[in-house]
Amino acid sequence: MLYKPYIDFLSEHAVDPDKRRYAIAEEGPRHYIDIDHYGAFPYDSLPRKWEAAVARYSEDSLVQHGIVPWWLQIMQSRLTAAFKEKDQAKILKLSAEIGHYMADAHVPLHACSNHNGQLSGQQGIHGFWESRVPELLADKDWDFFIGKAVYISRPGDFAWSTILESAAAADSVLRFEKILSNRFPADQKYAYEERNGVIVRQYSTAYTIAYDQMLHGMVERRMRQAIFAVASCWYTAWVNAGQPDLRQLSNTQFSATDLQEFDWLNEQWKKGKIAGREHE
Ligand SMILES: [Zn+2]
User: Fold this and answer.
1) Which of 93, 231, 277, 280 is the most buried (most CB within 10 A)?
2) Among 25-34, 47-56, 192-201, 215-224, which is the least confidently predicted range?
3) What DSSP character marks residue 23?
């Protein structure tokens, strides 16, 4: 098993794509798609193949509205190539990063132009769904044991069906919070609570639990599906590379260039200014 000893590396570097958004403008659109820009579910006017989509909408316009389903396919081929090269450092870096994009693709608000509730007076809902709810509930109540990874015979179709599931769920994510907000005592919606040693205003515990209940476990379900999808992407890349012997990989140490890149990403991220458009 290749990944187990590198679990810390993988979780640390799974956030590299988010850090890269602070460094290069092209990074942002790889994390989302405002699919409602293309009409109504199931958005048939948007060709699933990149070339056909470019022909219809132009590359600029596609990039402007996000490209995660296509980017996932690029990452999948890169990871497959890394397995073929038996390059352990590359495999680990790409595995961590594809995990990030695949997890983003499972978040309903990453498939919706109203991605932070900015169009409906629900600013903050993005972090509420993807950070506050799991941070409060995941350790105690959620089960992340998933079955065995499966082989994904068509990574393109898989990426698109993931996005369509997310897009279909976005409506409930927004609507339920609106309903809850209207019926919840306004002075109990937020609370000042401690977070990493600092007192911050955030959605209160009671509000968070009530929201999770309205969603009937959607956040947990999407997270479980994301974990399963990531494991399956890794497994699929290994199979498509001809099932190389993982005990005989080269580049088992990260190169000086790799380490420089990690440092550079951290520096850009600490400067704290997003390159290009903000979209969590
Ligand atoms: Zn992201």
Assistant:
1) 93
2) 192-201
3) T
Look at the chain and report how many structural domains it folds into: 1
Ligand 1 ion: Cβ-proximal residues, 5 Å cutoff: 18, 31, 104
**Ligand 1 geometric centre to CA of 99 (Å):** 10
CATH of the domain at 110: 1.10.575
193 alpha carbon – ligand 1 mean position (Å): 26
- Length in residues, the chain: 280
Token pair of 158, please? 């898989």
Distance of alpha carbon 236 from alpha carbon 75, whole angstroms? 12
In contact, 124 and 133? CB cutoff 8 Å:
no
Confidence band for 194, pLDDT divided at 50, 70 and 90 = confident
20 CA → ligand 1 middle, Å? 10
| Alpha carbon of residue 112 to chain centroid | 13
pLDDT at residue 2 tops 90? no
Average pLDDT of the segment spanning 205-229: 96
Q: How far is the CA of 152 from the centre of ligand 1 (A)?
A: 22
Is the overall model pTM greater than 0.90, yes or no? Answer: yes
> For residue 51, which amino acid is it?
E
Domain housing 105: 4-122+129-169+219-271
DSSP-derived secondary structure letter, 128: I
